[in-house]
Design brief:
It is built from four helices and no strands. Helix 1 runs antiparallel to helix 2 and helix 3 packs antiparallel against helix 4. The chain starts with a helix and ends with a helix. Keywords: Membrane, Transmembrane, Transmembrane helix.
Amino acid sequence: MTMANIITTFAGAFIFPFLIRLCWGKMCDAWGAIGGWMAAGFIVGTTWTLTHGVGIIVQSGGAWIDMAWAAGAGLFVASAMSGDDVSKGFVNVVMALIGGTLGGFILSCL
């Protein structure tokens, strides 16, 4: 993997949790439950298209990384840096790792 591929992969992995942290709560506050559904469609859909469709994230080798890992790790670090309770966020990181592993396993079976 070239240095340019490494940089774009990290940038692509950063975009997803950044948009979640920046927009998701505001959309839910403004539009209620439908705002959460809209955030899920717009944020996840747009980020997936950028990272996988356009090709910002470059995956090489046999390992397959799921977006849940980027979201879980990125949101955990953002919460820790903003002074939130890290022990509450640890459960979310574990669930993101389980979900990412399960998603990657299912995709490897295809």
